[in-house]
Amino acid sequence: MGAPVSDPGGGLPAPGHGVYDDSQWASTGDLPPRSRGVIALLEENCTACMLCARECPDWCIYISSHKEPVPTEPSGAGRGRPRVRNALDRFAIDFSLCMYCGICVEVCPYDALFWAPDFSYAERDIAGLTHERAQLREWVGTVPPPPAIDPGTGGR
Amino acid sequence: MTPEALAAAARDRLPGARCESASGSVTLEVSPAGWRDALRCARDELDCDFFDWLTAVDEGERGFTVVVHVYSLAGRHHLLVRTQVSRSSPALASVTGIYRGADWHEREAHEMFGVVFDGHPNLAPLLLPEGFDGHPLRKDFVLAPRVDKEWPGGREPGEGEDRPARRRLRPPGIPEEWGPR
Description:
The structure holds two protein chains of two kinds. The model of chain A is unreliable at 1-10 and 13-20 (pLDDT under 50). By secondary structure, chain A is an alpha+beta fold. Chain A is 11% helix and 19% strand. Chain A has helices spanning 51-55, 103-107, 133-139; strands spanning 38-41, 61-69, 84-94, 113-116, 130-131. Chain A has a domain at 34-71 and 82-142: 2-Layer Sandwich (Alpha-Beta Plaits). Chain B has a five-stranded mixed β-sheet. Chain B has a two-stranded parallel sheet with strand order 6-7. Chain B contains four helices and seven strands, in the order H-E-E-H-E-E-E-E-H-E-H. In chain B, strand 1 (18-22) and strand 2 (25-29) form a beta hairpin. Chain B has a domain at 3-118: NADH:ubiquinone oxidoreductase Nqo5 subunit (Beta Polymerase, domain 2, 2-Layer Sandwich), CATH 3.30.460. Chain B is of the alpha/beta class.
């Protein structure tokens, strides 16, 4: 109580000062795998199939993409029709709407969405809670390895 | 008390109720007329002194289920008590005289589902702003954002913001007559 706020200019106080001190709370290292902190996007795996955006009950996933031709291999030139694939232009999750149900993570057939444990991404402006693809990609680095399979399951 | 013992005690004291015990939880289904008696019995005879929550479930044409969860601090057993009221006149006796903590829960169930709790001391809206029209947790309540927001899933794979969709996909669960799109 009464601790001086280090930055009266409006930015978040430095850690350990003021109301935003969260050092006493759990660090993400204490959390079990698949903790529902934030959703990470491995965009290399995303095919812009729209399944997550269509399943999302909160309508909080925004995807736009375009089709681009796949470069044909020299040996295969002239055979078959030209192939196209979807290239991602925008992938954003609005965490101000997200209810952390995880349906998008479950439904993704290409393993492009993951739960990451980070939870401290509060914003002063609600628009900041819409994480665009670059930010969603950064969360991938914090995704823990999946938990071990229970003994007696998953074996050959 | 074990769930089995609790279920047996409940059956013993409330012969008119339907009592189910499954997966460690006991559910007591009573008629609306027996609602207050069932909860008084739960508090006084089944030792469930802690009121946890009360809510309602929209069951469509079958009306609304009102559910209460109570707990025994000493015996560490818990009990779900539920009843069903009609859709045309969803009214039920208030249990605020038995569990004072039910006050706000009944106010919330009233504004969200339109269930009227007879005998409640002050059935005013709890969370909704004054003058709010409708009961938002009823399944037939039209969600305004579903009408005026474009469904993000309506876009086809490979489509950007600039190109309009060739065919408009209807969002799942949204009635046809809703909205401009």
